[in-house]
Amino acid sequence: MTHPTLIRRDANRPLLPDVLELASAGIPVLPLRAGKLPFGNCQGCTNNRCGGRPSMKHAGPCQCPQPCHGWAAATTDPAVLSSAPWTTAWRRAEAVAYHPGGAGVTVVDLDDADAIAWACATLAPTRTVATTRGEHWIYRGTMQSVNGVRPGVDIKSAMSYTRWLGPGTGALVNLPAVVQSLAGRKPTAVRPTHNILATAPAGGGVCRHRSPIYLERGIAMAEQRITDAQSAVHAMVYRTFLAVLSAHGRCGCLTETHITRLFAAAQAKGESPRHCTDAWSNARTALGM
User: Fold this and answer.
1) By C-alpha distance, which of 78, 100, 76 is closest to 25?
2) What would the pLDDT profile of 18-48 be if each residue is shown by its tens digit?
3) Run of H or E including 139
4) Would you state the pLDDT for residue 188?
5) Residue 187 preceded by cis peptide, ω within 30
6) Which residues of 248-279 are buried (b: 16+ CB within 10 A; e: fewer)?
7) Cβ of 240: how many Cβ atoms within 10 Å?
8) What are the residue boundaries of the structural domains of the chain, listed by start?
């Protein structure tokens, strides 16, 4: 995550320019209505008619152009953010939120002074952002999102959203094992995704996949394919990674954020970080990368 400015609601200034600044920094954003809530499903998406899954907070993507799928609607695509349905939502929005998992980070949401004191005594110092009641501590890496892991402490990362309150202060550090353990899983080391990135072919060249819409749609479809797997999750993760690398792996258009999103989707289905890394490496080997 980079350091775009704090976005405040101002009747004399539209939100969209600041929203596009966030998106250009690789932070998937979505509008929030009064009460810090996402916009509700439109008529065409109610009652699961669009294929979203209510058990997953209306997780898309679907073909609906409205920003009505909560965290799953968050995007960095300027064409989507500037489209008519979204600009209408930005005019009505009370605040801007982002999908931490999509940005490759985990937010430890500390609601009060006692929670902050616990964090100061327990967690590695990292970037912090002041909130109305407490602080957000932001770490590099993603995990499942869990509320109420201890008094006054929520974890927001994959399949979640949180309000954008500014860049904060301090340098990002890797997600510590103690935070992962709060979610009830065995702590695992954070693996730097840059070690498994597919690099561009020697000699460079123009990437035919650099259309933001094409690439974003491909990654979103891959996330959804993993999310929708009801059995043989291991095999589905591998096949999905293989398909993504086959389409985008040789031209250098994949970034750490894209790979983190795919890993987050797999881990939300119960895959371990080690399995994600192995599946990615095996897919690269199968394609001769």
Assistant:
1) 76
2) 899 999 888 999 999 887 888 888 888 876 6
3) strand 135-140
4) 39
5) no
6) bbbbbbbbebbbbbbbbbbbbbebebebbeeb
7) 22
8) 16-98, 101-156+168-182, 193-286
